[in-house]
Amino acid sequence: MTQLNQALERPTVPTWTPHLRSHIQAAAEHLQNDSEEMRQCSPEQVLYHDYMQAGAPHGPALYAVKGEHWNGVSPKFLEFINAFQFRRGDMGYAESGYGIQRHRNFMRRLIVSEHHLEARRPAARLDIDVGCLAMTTRMAMYDMAKVAMRHARERHPGKTPVALVPTPSWDYRGIFKDVGFEIVFLPLGPKNGWLPDLQAWDAIVRDTLADGSRHIAMAVTNPQHNPTGMQWPVDVTGWLLDLCAAQDGFLLLDDAYYCVHDPRAPVVNHLKALLDAFDREGGDNELVRSGMFERWVATRPFGKQFSCNTMGVAAITTSPTMLRQLSRESWINRYHTNTHNAELMCAWLATPEAADWTIETGLFYTRQKELVRARLKERMGWNDAALCIGPSTSYMLIEIPKVYQTTDGGIDRFRDDLFFATGTLVSASLFNQTAPVPYVRLHLGSHPDVIEEFLRRWEAAGLRYDMASTFGGRAGLGKPVLPPVFRQEG
């Protein structure tokens, strides 16, 4: 038999598809941490270590927790990056943490265009400024929190500064609590269609302020909401804006998912609504007189839009005075780096391919959500009420099985047990502070092959909404799920 014939007699059976392989490799690189001390900072790294020590019984670990995009990056953007040529001047420290002027000019034009502000003719002292941050919006939020904390201590001595944070949500708590704010959560849930109930929120605020010892120093609005994907009405931002004005507080408008959106559904433009409020009566109104124009910041990252979170480039829109204060905080805390990432992102955003991908990625997430929704309903017993799927963001919420809702540990216990039973990681209490609703968050930014493998393992392990008993914790490591079958041999 010739060598060729021998090869034909033993055809190569692919264990994983190419997109699965790239996800598996990247997940392993990000989750492995050989330092026992360091990995205690990450529940996912702790779980991964235990899983690998058990021999990875269900196959390579799969990850859908924090918005990773290890294989979902725009192909055209990857080509653009690999062909891009930097100049020597792109590699030095920057003088401003909020961007060199050329990048700021570009970001201003983009914000004005995409938020439909071309017709705005602001009154004196009501023009916006736009920074180009190259260090992730979390850094800008830290800068803002420090400005707001200093303001609260100077203007409201003796009172506890409070930050109003929606829940479930992204980890705003981690920023504001670290700076010294007391966190008061504003809950969202299925009873109100996962939209803010302003009457309920108002009652929480009144209760918070009742004894006179607290001051609303910060509030967060997240219009294309992470993780529900629901779009908040502009009335929500208006209500928070008025509250902050009355309380001498600051407002964070987190527009992280403004363009990560089903393009068939109109996008709700909260930045324009906020500026319209300042512009009422030609800018001569109580809101402006309160000084609120100097106490708001809108953040708009682009990592979500193009599946490249490692670049950390964002537009920061606010008043010129507030941008100066953010820049001051930035200088105190860090040297300014990553200007080359801003150069690259600005150049990419100017291309027609970037606009095309924005539409494509919105449709992609819509298809991914429908895939998971259909599989959970048709094969694993979920119903529509137990799933939360909005038109925005790269996430969906899944109610944990009923048996876990009466189990000690709640959603974290389910996250751990599901990983030990299937080798798949989802997000639990990281986003669901105070656990007001028994849901986990699933990130859908990975290729459909990865999501299909998640679902295959879940079904093979016996995951059901009405499952009679829990997976049993680490006992799941001793019950490997069936491997995938790509080719039946004759």
Automatic annotation (TrEMBL):
It comes from the Bacteria. Residues 163-383 form the Aminotransferase class I/classII large domain. Gene3D superfamilies: Type I PLP-dependent aspartate aminotransferase-like (Major domain) (3.40.640.10). InterPro entries: Aminotransferase_I/II_large (IPR004839), PyrdxlP-dep_Trfase (IPR015424), PyrdxlP-dep_Trfase_major (IPR015421). Pfam families: Aminotran_1_2 (PF00155). CDD domains: AAT_like (cd00609). Coiled coil: none annotated. This is Aminotransferase class I/classII large domain-containing protein. It comes from Massilia varians. The lineage of its organism: Bacteria, Pseudomonadati, Pseudomonadota, Betaproteobacteria, Burkholderiales.
